[in-house]
Amino acid sequence: MRRFEEMNDFKTFTEISSRCYPGMKLNSKEDKERYQDHREKMNQEDNIRHIALYENTDMVGGYVEYQHVLNLYQQKIPTAGIGTVAVDLPYKKQGHAKAIIQRFIEDAREEERSLVQLYPFQPAFYRKMGFGLGPALHTFRFHPSQLPPFPTVDPVSVLNENDKEEVKKCYKSWANQTHGACQKANYEFKFLGLEDYHAAGFKRKGQIEGYLVYQFEQQAGDHFLQNDLYVIDFITISQEAYQSLIHYLHIQKDQVRSIKMPTFNEQFSFLLQDPCHTDEELLYRIYHKTSEQGHGLMYRIVDVPLFMKSLESHSFGDETVKIGWKISDTFMDEENYYVYQYTKGHPSLVEEKADIDIHIGIAEFSSLMMGSVTLEGLINVGYARTVDNQHFEKANRLFQNPTKPQCWTFF
């Protein structure tokens, strides 16, 4: 008999996690004790729940649920995230993972959280469960001298735990103006007190308008003078802060071999004097490698009417058209049909005949609504289907220039 309970046996969950995620390297008694203590401590946070899965009297798996407030096109909505999904090795392929995700979705619906998120161990696995890809993340790697200098801007300051409240305010301001961003809990700013993390910030009249978090790394065989700088966070809410932090990275050119910069900004390469990656590889004919790209965060709309109601003040474009969405959700065994009137891009649910019907899966619909992909892109590869009528171009133009989400919350 399968059942879910609020977790209280963190020792067993630690043992399960050590087998499901050997990369955590929970190999010693001390490692496992530290991880167990961490889980018990995190369980005290208001936005975190640990859920255990039992088969009769045995814990066979579990997961961690995170509650977030997300900026959805300048509207704040409650969402849920799931992480550390674990099913003990002897119990794999018995439908437990499916049961975990279905329970997670059902809980989100009951709590009126119309959108859920996760970071996949394997995107294809969760795509079958109805999660759609989020935006691509680019990581650039370059010598600091390739960044432009901004010598006239005010310099940055080294940040420490005394700056925590101002750092939190800066991040909150950024999140309030950025689609896809989640508000962060207090524990997510612990980097200010960690010995192997460094932080610098731009201040104006005592208020932080941008901050940079980074670590120094070395490659195998490096001597003590060879170091790479890995950017962890780069948050700014003003042009001056952006330029000051870029200048700070630029002046590390005599000490740092390379900078690794993650960003959702596809145009970051235009900032660099030489945009070439330090690998100096050619990708195709005479196209130089400038960055590496990957997908991480995935989205799933679990309550379409509630989610779309949050979008009533948002305009996807200038078009006016009535679209009938035929949404297939094979994972939850659901088929739904909704007609939305887009008036100058603003959606509203109507009980009228659609100008055009579009057949789409919930994963692709989630990616489309979040701005991660265009309708044309989905139509071209068959992930969305429609009859090419006189309203097709209107529907196509409506989702032609999406605002892509940005999220620097990890769970």
UniProtKB/TrEMBL annotation:
One of its GO terms (biological process) is aminoglycoside antibiotic catabolic process. Gene3D superfamilies: 3.40.630.30, SCP2 sterol-binding domain. GO terms for molecular function: aminoglycoside N-acetyltransferase activity. Residues 1-154 form the N-acetyltransferase domain. SUPFAM superfamilies: Acyl-CoA N-acyltransferases (Nat), SCP-like. PROSITE patterns: GNAT. InterPro entries: Acetyltransf_17, Acetyltransferase_Eis, Acyl_CoA_acyltransferase, Eis_dom, GNAT_dom, SCP2_sterol-bd_dom_sf. This is N-acetyltransferase domain-containing protein. It comes from Halobacillus mangrovi. The lineage of its organism: Bacteria, Bacillati, Bacillota, Bacilli, Bacillales.
